[in-house]
Amino acid sequence: MSDDHSHPQSSLVTSTSSWSKGLRRWLSTAPETRDELIKLIHNSRQLLEPDTVAMLEGVLDLPATQVYEIMTPISQVARIQIHDSPSDIMHAYMATTHSRYPVFGGNPEEVIGILLAKDLIPFLVDKAQGGSQVFDLISVLRQPIFISETARSDNLLRLFQKNQMHMAIVIDEFGNTAGVVTLEDLLEEIVGDIEDEHDEIDHANEINPIAPVIGKNDTWIIQSSTPIELCNQQLGTQFNHEEVNSMGGLVMQHLGQVNEVLGQMVQIDDCQLTVLSVDERFIQEIELKKDYNGLSNSLNP
Length: 301
Fold this sequence. Notes:
Shape: elongated
Distance between the termini: 75 Å
Strand order of the largest sheet: 8-9-12-11-10
Structural class: alpha+beta
Strand content: 15-25%
Largest sheet: 5 strands, antiparallel
Number of helices: 11
């Protein structure tokens, strides 16, 4: 009976020992510097979607990004003055549809608070019901938070978390208001531009994910987010889509580790794919030439 119990115990010890050796081996090769970690992420492009790689790079870039690089300059900020009437405030809101506004005091460069658009709702409801509530802007202002324009973006993120705020006032080296920065500005550094329901979209000019190039036979402009399966269906290609789903991911998978993707070319099956445009780390458009080997093949007997 003791023999029956000795086998699983031995197997367990062997398995644990093997697992420990594997863990130690992984830890011995784990990246020790930021540059090594970025290199590891670059080398993972064959395993991860390009958007995932770009987001990881964006997170790692936050400590190297200063607030002034992502803020909105004060000259471009929609502002409200403390003595503005409810009509003025509603006019500003209808013109911009922002959710937060810096409110300036007697000094036109001094921010004394943040107005949340949702804090206007009780006043508007009262007016709609025929009430006589007097609007008091000071009573609904939120305490502003301030940050230096040279502060690191990862410190800004922690400031937002600590204060449960989505907007900060940026101060220059002389103590003047340089601009404002929002949580959305931070997120866009990681995931790219975020379009909300108020951003203008020209539906008449929606981009065709697969558009033929006029004057070039068997050539198309393909949007990076186009599903590989859709491309296969429309163009008769046979690209593999088991590991990646988008055409941008397919190109990145074949490119491997490159510092600059713009203009890079890869050949997959009988197609040549060229990166035509990028948005920072994201591929936007790809030119696909089908039957790229067709000419050479036709010359063979």
